[in-house]
Amino acid sequence: MIEKIEKINAVKGELILPGDKSISHRAVMFSAMADGKSTVKNYLNSEDVNSTVDCFRKLGCKIEQTETDLTIEGKGFGGFTKPNSVLDAGNSGTTTRLICGILATQKFETTIIGDASLSKRPMKRVVEPLSQMGAEIETSEKGTLPMKISNAKELKAIEFDMLIASAQIKSAVLLAGLHMDETTVVIEHSRTRNHTETLLGLRVEEFDGFRKIYSSKKNYPKPTEYIVPSDISTAAFFMVLALNLKNSGLLLKNVLLNETRNGIIKILQQMGGRIEIENTRESSGEKLGDLRIFSSRLHNIEISEEIIPNIIDEIPILAVAGLFAEGKFVIRNAEELRHKESDRIDALCSNFKNLGLNCTEFEDGFELSGEVINENILIESFDDHRIAMAFAILGMLVGKGMSINNFESVAVSNPEFLKQIRSITL
Ligand code: S3P
């Protein structure tokens, strides 16, 4: 579906955006593992999280679903049952890699498949540590889906030195670790999102330049109520829109402010963005608050290597902010962007170049400056929700708007994106 995006003059009002994607996936998984009934309130009702819900239904869980809430009858330790068919993770890397850590410990065989994009993404990164634990997992020759996970034999706890900055790899190993008496340790050198350790209450030790995270059977989840804050990655699109429009102001309520995810707010503030944080509080161990965003003049800044894992999902929309900011936008040390729902460096650079912008691509990032010259081109979304939404915001900020193909991909993380935009447009 081609979506024609129109220019917007100003936005005003308040929004409560849907629940955080990373937390919603984990809340579903931990509820399904626990012995008894859990509830997940304000979960993200999107294609990605629904892939996780479907997988756990196939593993024997009863899950009741409303627009905003889930009630999950968890199966307890060792309680999952062999699915009658393959598990389809759709477009979701988080579903695949995290569930792999759980399934590697089960006494039955499973196969995981995914859509065309997910079937290109690297899975060796989780297969390797899980194999060290004794799991038997087969992938395609290229190390991609489909993935066959064999009936678990004797598994052992490991100490895993994680060389790729990835919360999905970290979580896969820690979730497998929950099934063993001995303690599994993940050593993390760059700080990645910490929802797995926060929601499970895992022990974390901080050292100079690295941290150790511990999991064992003692940390196996118990039934509980999760209240999911609004997704900061979704909020980022609205922040960039409001900052770059004149006479605009937005209140985004209940936004996740976890310190491993709030880099986008810090960077936009350093770029001169007026974003005020109010009413900070905690829910399910996660920090949240309300964001007031005002029209601002932005300037580009140097983006440090340490903050990249914190803002990895926000880089497409940050690049759009950088384009409207004074000076050149530069992002480096972000090679991981090539392994997302699309190769996001290529997806961004090819569209920017087609728009007539000055864009130099590097293996680990790109530089961007100039002004949009060719407005009437068709933007290629590469079936990637964050590419589609980033260029939609760009289209709302330039003269004649913009057309974007396969726009339906936004349903992966925010099916109501355009409706929310309409509700705040003046
Ligand atoms: C996620 C981790 C990140 C992120 C993804 C969600 C998670 O991926 O990009 O959208 O929920 O653990 P990596 O672990 O591949 O960095």
User: What count of helical segments does DSSP give?
Assistant: 13
CATH architecture assignment name of the largest domain = Alpha-beta prism
CATH class category of the largest domain = Alpha Beta
Distance between the termini: 26 Å
The fraction of residues in strands falls at 15-25%
The percent of residues in helical segments reads: 25-40%
- C-alpha geometry: globular
Radius of gyration: 21 Å
CATH 4th-level superfamily of the largest domain: Enolpyruvate transferase domain
Characterize this entry briefly.
By secondary structure, the protein is of the alpha+beta class. The protein has helices at residues 21-33, 47-58, 93-103, 124-132, 167-177, 195-200, 232-244, 263-270, 308-311, 315-323, 344-354, 385-397, 417-424, and strands spanning 3-5, 12-15, 35-41, 62-65, 69-75, 87-88, 110-113, 137-138, 147-149, 159-162, 184-188, 203-207, 210-215, 225-227, 249-256, 274-283, 286-294, 329-331, 358-362, 365-369, 378-379, 402-404. The chain has 2 domains: 3-17 and 231-424, Alpha-beta prism (UDP-n-acetylglucosamine1-carboxyvinyl-transferase, Chain); 21-214, UDP-n-acetylglucosamine1-carboxyvinyl-transferase, Chain (Alpha-beta prism), CATH 3.65.10.10.
